[in-house]
């Protein structure tokens, strides 16, 4: 294969289109969340992920799992947790069965803010997908995104 290989060129163009779609969606959602709720996309994502935890076996996520879910490094995730904890939106506590483990829960204030921000996130996502669908290069990707379902945990 060479740098001018048509398959590689097509692959690179597809990746560029996907990256462009992601960037546009994230930027639109970011502006909406910041303006209405003083939340970044990452903060919203973290609150959303942590709000889905449960008290049952395996219901609480370790920091590595949280980092993977919000697509950040562990250190960036820890800093993000600290910022939201300082705002009273999250709280940390020791794992009752393993004192080395630290879990993070969303506070009542965090749950309220998440509930207020969810419609903003959802409508900004819809708006950005509708706008991207007008672009012939992005429209096929929008159709794919609209058909995706959340993966079922194993």
Please explain how this structure is put together.
The structure is a single chain. The protein is mostly helical. The chain contains six helices and two strands; from the N terminus they run H-H-H-H-E-E-H-H. The protein has helices at 6-37, 41-51, 63-70, 74-86, 108-133, 139-147, and strands at 90-94, 102-106. A hairpin with a 7-residue loop joins strand 1 and strand 2. The mean pLDDT is 90.
Question: What can be said about this structure in brief?
Answer:
This protein is mainly alpha-helical. It is built from six helices and two strands, in the order H-H-H-H-E-E-H-H.
For the structure shown, list the relevant keywords.
single chain; 154 residues; mainly alpha; two-stranded antiparallel ribbon; 6 helices; 2 strands; globular
Number of helical stretches of at least 4 residues: 6
Strands ordered across the widest β-sheet: 1-2
Query: Tell me about the biggest sheet?
Result: 2 strands, antiparallel
Rg result = 19 Å
Total beta strand runs:
2
Low-confidence runs (pLDDT<50, min 5 residues)? none
Question: Given the helix and strand composition, which structural class is it?
Answer: mainly alpha
Termini distance? 37 Å
Could you spell the SSE succession in H and E letters? HHHHEEHH
**CA-based shape:** globular
The percentage helix is: 55-70%
Structural topology:
Elements: H1 6-37, H2 41-51, H3 63-70, H4 74-86, E1 90-94, E2 102-106, H5 108-133, H6 139-147
Antiparallel strand pairs: 1-2
Helix pairs in contact: 1-5, 2-5, 3-4, 5-6
